[in-house]
């Protein structure tokens, strides 16, 4: 037990979190109060995802709804995205923190179908259904962010976007391969 705890602290031997309960159905729109902060709203799949992350990975600090006025294409003001802080915002994470970030990011991708995940961005990389065959691609900032910046390149947080409809319906070719 002690060894497992030490391994956890060192960021090595992190156990893979178990599978989430899949999202099934819910009301349309940005109708749930933000489950992380007291402002804004999230969609039913986002609300479900937040609950499953908490259930399987414990408390990871983060934020979902946000005006994100500087990025008109953001999913945050629609309640379809959450940012999970890895270490401290504005600071490049340690190796241990990076390992924990990838643990969350990979878990979200692995269970993208069950959790209605659309895409995940972390540590200068992005995975999306549209480019699933390419795996974790280099993240170029999407025209809105500087990918070399600690926050713009998503080094200090894991971004996850959700879709309302099942990914198997929206991205059938990729979902058939996954
Ligand atoms: Zn984000």
UniProtKB/TrEMBL annotation:
Domain of life: Bacteria
Domain named ARB-07466-like C-terminal: residues: 40-144
Name recorded for this polypeptide: ARB-07466-like C-terminal domain-containing protein
High-level lineage: Bacteria, Bacillati, Actinomycetota, Actinomycetes, Cryptosporangiales
